[in-house]
Amino acid sequence: MEKPPRDARYAKLEERDVQHFRSIVADPQASVVTDPDALAPLNEDWLHKYRGYSKLGLQPRTVEEVARILKYCNERKLAVVPQGGNTGLVGGSVPVHDEIILSMSKMNKVLSFDPVSGVLTCEAGCVLQTLDEYLEEKGFTMPLDLGAKGSCHIGGNVATNAGGVRFLRYGSLHGNVLGLQVVLPDGTILDSLNGLRKDNTGYDLKQLFIGSEGSLGVITAVSLLTPARPKSVNVAVLSVPSFEAVQKAFVEVKQDLGEILSAFEFWDRQSMELEMQQLPHIRDPLSSPSPFYILVETHGSNEAHDTEKLNGFLERAMGEGLVTDGTVAQDTTQFRALWQIRESFAEAGSKAGFNYKYDLSIPINKMYDLATEVRERLGDKAQTIAYGHVGDSNLHLNMVTPKYDAEVHGLIEPFVYEWTSKQGGSISAEHGLGLMKRDCLHYSKPEQAIRYMRVIKETFDPQLILNPYKVIPLQ
Ligand code: FAD
Ligand code: MLT
Ligand code: ZN
């Protein structure tokens, strides 16, 4: 795949720069990485699609170190790519060329937790799952959950405005993040870690950094609102005969389960088959193959009441022919196994070969039409699988070929983006733009909006050192 040429405005790293970085961090041995073997995984993305050739990784331990590093890079015009858990799917987290990798992995301390308000404050490099485990002991949970939870950082989640599987219940990080500490490219520390739920004192600057994908500043700490951990949890995977029935089931599930509904996900038969081909431990949870699968989860506080509600929904949906078969987890092992099916499509696709990965917001009644049309366009040139957060109108459309195939790519793009744009959808529901979709932004945003994005970028990062080649299209 082509990458944009290296921009000559950026300085090339010299030995004196490395020496300088060693002199401004407390633990140069651990914080300054130059060993090619240690750098290799930082240079390559999770999907093995994007690879840079950075000669330097920096792993600061404090916000002051981050500030000193960025101030120097800004003065020297050294380009920098902020990196969290490196699970991003759009080529945003790795260098395109020789940018310095600024990894947040050593900034992973919980700073405070208030059990009355539920406000958690932690450093940006905390792993999502570790935070959830920390909160579990206190009777709370993280307001977001996603398949990459074992590796992704909360800072990366905020930087990408990650959605995930419980968005429908707990909402967006734009609502749950109460405060951020951010280091700007010139080394200024912008601190709004106050954890206030209400604060109408002028512009809410932190919102700009949520979803900015490392292009405006480096997030070093986060305050967020965490909900009480549900006392009762149910999950069911159900067989649904058509995508129309998926939509009807969604309408009914909202009416029947109301406030306890916590996830409503779907995948198609082709996704199930690809996953079983690639991951031998995965089994179809239903007794016979289904055209569509939905996963319904509840988070509540009273087991008897929640189970009764779920059973009521199941009876009604089966009576109406919306659901033809299903399984309800009876214990934690089954609960995990059902979620594992939903959370492993990315891994299965990546094992199968080259992934053409699309993450689209499309009005729910049109969502699956795109998968059908793309499947027809590609015939047997690629495997086409569709799954996603149907409760949020978020389709994950993935095509897979054994190796990169330019003809297949040409059949998919710009078709998928044009189609989505015509429906008034978004070419990135939750994964972001990164390098992959930088030049496709116009399918979702008017020219005026892109112009103001440029103004904001130049205001925060006038030397354009942060995450170059990504997010903002070239003029
Ligand atoms: P990285 O991949 O390291 O970085 C992502 C972007 O954020 C880059 O542009 C990087 O420069 C920037 N960045 C990272 N940390 C910082 C920081 N501290 N300050 C400033 N910028 C920073 N995404 C979803 O939204 N929903 C899902 O359901 C979902 N499921 C996934 C499942 C799997 C199996 C995988 C592999 C990925 C999934 N993703 C999902 C995508 C990805 O995990 C998320 O985008 C995640 O939020 C990225 O976090 P990270 O720490 O890995 O960030
Ligand atoms: C998911 O919902 O599974 C993730 O966003 C990853 C993917 O799109 O494959
Ligand atoms: Zn997703």
Describe this structure in words.
- This protein has 475 residues and is of the alpha+beta class.
- Among the domains are: 110-225, Uridine Diphospho-n-acetylenolpyruvylglucosamine Reductase, domain 3 (2-Layer Sandwich), CATH 3.30.465; 232-423, Alpha-Beta Plaits (2-Layer Sandwich), CATH 3.30.70.2190.
- 35% of the residues lie in helices and 20% in strands.
- The protein has 18 helices and 16 strands.
- The protein has helices at 15-24, 28-31, 36-43, 63-76, 128-136, 154-160, 167-170, 173-176, 206-209, 243-257, 269-278, 303-319, 332-343, 345-352, 367-378, 406-412, 415-422, 447-460; strands spanning 32-33, 57-58, 80-83, 100-103, 110-114, 119-123, 177-183, 189-191, 218-225, 232-240, 261-268, 292-300, 325-328, 354-361, 383-389, 394-401.
- A seven-stranded antiparallel beta sheet has the order 13-10-12-11-15-16-14, sandwiched between helices. Strands 5-6-9-7-8 form a five-stranded antiparallel beta sheet.
- Helix 10 (243-257) runs antiparallel to helix 12 and helix 11 packs across helix 14.
- The chain is globular.
- It starts with 14 loop residues before the first helix and ends in a 15-residue tail after the last helix.
- The mean pLDDT is 97.
- D-malate (MLT) is lined by residues 147, 345-346, 359, 396.
